[in-house]
Design brief:
With 187 residues, the protein is of the alpha+beta class. The chain has helices at residues 19-27, 47-54, 120-133, 142-145, and strands at 2-4, 11-13, 34-36, 76-80, 83-93, 103-111, 138-141, 155-157, 163-165, 181-184. The protein is globular and about 55 Å long.
Length: 187
């Protein structure tokens, strides 16, 4: 069965046996929570569809040469309700440390333009959940120091003291005021 998505040029096809599921899904209201999606999540698997429906251009940069990366090798999309609103580059430092002393290191945070951002507490809660799910007990990076969290200025301090735009280059960025710090993940 052909399916038209409002504001999208492509006509998608859905098996006739799944039309009822699609009708139910159209009435579904997503929770306004924040989710940090892995790079190979089913929601973003088809990159062209992700760009058309969500207006979110995403590339998994793990195999992109470092000099050509825009964000980071394992940058993950940020889902807020039913919108992809940003991306975060983070990794868990495990090497040489026993479990219980692992740290989620936030290297960068970028927000899409003209989107509603999640509040600080919702974003921090999602970040803590993500850290716990990955076995980290601490979070290190600029977000741990900023009381304003994700709604703070246009720059994100990156590990090593370098500044990296919190939006893709050339989209009205400005320096942030917070320095990198760390925080304990509360259980």
């Amino acid at each position: 069965m052909p399916v038209a998505v409002e504001g999208v040029k492509t006509t998608y096809l859905v098996p006739a046996s799944e039309v009822d599921d699609l009708v139910r899904a159209a009435r579904w209201e997503p929770e306004p929570g924040v989710r940090l999606l892995p790079p190979l999540d089913n929601l973003i698997w088809l990159r062209k569809r992700t760009a058309e429906i969500f207006g979110f251009d995403y590339t998994w940069e793990a195999y992109v040469p470092a000099a050509k990366r825009k964000y980071g090798p394992y940058t993950c999309p940020i889902l807020y309700g039913d919108r992809l609103v940003g991306r975060i580059d983070a990794r868990v430092e495990r090497e040489g440390r026993p479990r219980g002393e692992w740290t989620l290191v936030v290297n960068g945070l970028w927000w899409e333009e003209s989107v509603e951002r999640p509040g600080s507490s919702a974003f921090e809660r999602a970040l803590r959940e993500w850290a716990r799910a990955n076995g980290a007990d601490r979070i290190e990076g600029p977000l741990a120091a900023s009381r304003e969290g994700p709604t703070a200025g246009g720059w994100c301090q990156t590990r090593g003291g370098r500044n990296r735009p919190s939006r893709p280059p050339g989209r009205g960025t400005r320096p942030a005021s917070s320095a990198a710090a760390s925080s304990e993940v509360q259980r």
